[in-house]
Design brief:
alpha/beta; Aspartate Aminotransferase, domain 2; 14 helices; 4-stranded antiparallel sheet; about 400 residues; globular
Length: about 400
């Protein structure tokens, strides 16, 4: 088989990690603790499922193609809610609905880059961003972060060339968990604007941010939509992972380019998912607030349990959204460690090597724990196992 851009990128990491489970037996007194994937394991609340069932039965439009950029009511509601969240005014023509946030990223990159162009990604990066850039023929330019996992705008400035088309940030961050301070996000916006490139900000975990008030002021900047491309997902906030609904907020001109990609790849976002997203936004704000409280409580539990683990040499680099990102204390590369941990500790986590360029040694020392599905009791078990682990 000849080399292609798709062959050149790596296999889906979560699927690869799942294969490590094959042939390993887990006992009743030590079941598998799976902290590999950042996705809710429970279905949406019953009221939402019932509303979806009713929609499926009574509305013919539930089963038909709709507008490429999404249904107008959903675009309008999201524009209004983004406006409320960020203290800004948005119009529905600045918002499009996609089949998930990964597709939102892919569509945006396809619209703003050409073969051989460059996009700057802070490391550790979200692996699907790197994979899509590889498959799109775009070079990912790694922007290393330090122990605080925060990217430095001046270091980014030094990486900008005449091929750079965008900088892509994720805040709250996957895999690092860190919430980027508003001033930092603003500094990246100013840099992107000055350089005439786009700033993509993936805010999939926006609804689990521990801060109150707008997490940044980019939507308040005049002409924000010429620089900012905000990406959002309904997957986590409303437990709709299987329905594939995400969104993009940016300029109508860029959305017209993005529409070409969306039309060709999926024609329109699924109707059930769009209905569920709209119903969720209109009826579930209290429920989402409760989910956030629960995640923040789990995060606080991790903070409480840290000292024992720290004593064993584990170092917490970032904590937030669905993630705790650690430097491990063992004299083993993280990819080997992660595989061995399955059988030897009953834990499935992802190694830092999955979030880094291969030649960056930091990845070998780091691991990501997606903690969102573990309650306090589950977290205690996880931490006990990690504290006892020796390699
Ligand atoms: C940063 C980030 N972006 C996008 C996605 C994918 O979201 P969606 O399910 O909406 O495609 C995820 C899911 O893990 C994510 O962590």
């Amino acid at each position: 088989m000849s080399q292609t851009r798709t062959r050149a990128t790596f296999p889906p990491p979560v699927m690869e990690a799942r294969r490590w489970l094959e042939g390993v037996d887990f006992t009743q007194d030590r079941p598998l603790i799976n902290v590999s994937q950042a996705a809710p394991v429970d279905p949406p609340p019953l009221a939402l499922r019932q509303a979806m069932a009713e929609f499926a039965v009574s509305e013919d439009s539930a089963h038909l193609y709709g507008p490429v950029l999404g249904n107008p009511e959903l675009r309008a509601e999201l524009a209004q809610q983004i406006g409320t969240h960020y203290g800004a005014d948005l119009s529905q023509v600045q918002v499009a609905i996609t089949s998930g946030c990964n597709q939102a990223f892919a569509a945006t990159i396809s619209a703003v880059t050409d073969e051989g162009d460059e996009v700057i990604l802070p490391t550790p990066w979200y692996f699907n961003h790197k994979m899509w850039l590889d498959m799109a023929g775009v070079r990912s330019i790694a922007l290393q972060t330090g122990d605080d996992l925060l990217p430095d705008p001046e270091a980014a400035r030094a990486l900008i060339t005449d091929k750079t088309r965008a900088i892509a940030l994720v805040t709250p961050n996957n895999p690092g968990g860190v919430e980027y301070p508003a001033e930092l996000v603003r500094a990246f916006y100013d840099l992107a604007q000055e350089a005439g490139i786009r700033l993509l900000v993936d805010e999939t975990y926006r609804d689990f941010d521990s801060r109150s008030g707008p997490p940044h002021d980019l939507f308040q900047q005049p002409g924000w939509d010429e620089t900012l491309v905000h990406l959002y997902s309904f997957s986590k906030s409303y437990r709709l992972t299987g329905h594939r609904v995400g969104a993009i907020a940016t300029s109508p001109n860029l959305l017209a380019e993005i529409e070409k990609f969306l039309d060709t790849v999926a024609i329109c976002p699924g109707q059930m998912g769009q209905f569920a997203a709209l119903w969720g936004m209109q009826n579930l704000s209290q429920w989402v607030a409760g989910e956030r409280d629960e995640i923040l409580d789990r995060r606080a539990a991790i903070q409480d349990m840290l000292p024992d683990l720290a004593e064993k040499g584990w170092k917490l680099l970032g904590l937030g959204a669905y993630f705790a990102y650690f430097e491990h204390p063992f004299d083993l590369p993280s990819d080997e460690l992660a595989k061995r941990m399955v059988a030897e500790t009953g834990i499935l986590l992802l190694p830092g090597t999955m979030f880094m360029p291969q030649d960056d040694p930091a990845g070998k020392r780091q691991v990501r724990i997606a903690f969102a599905n573990l309650d306090r009791k589950g977290l205690r078990q996880l931490f006990d196992r990690l504290t006892d682990a020796t390699f």
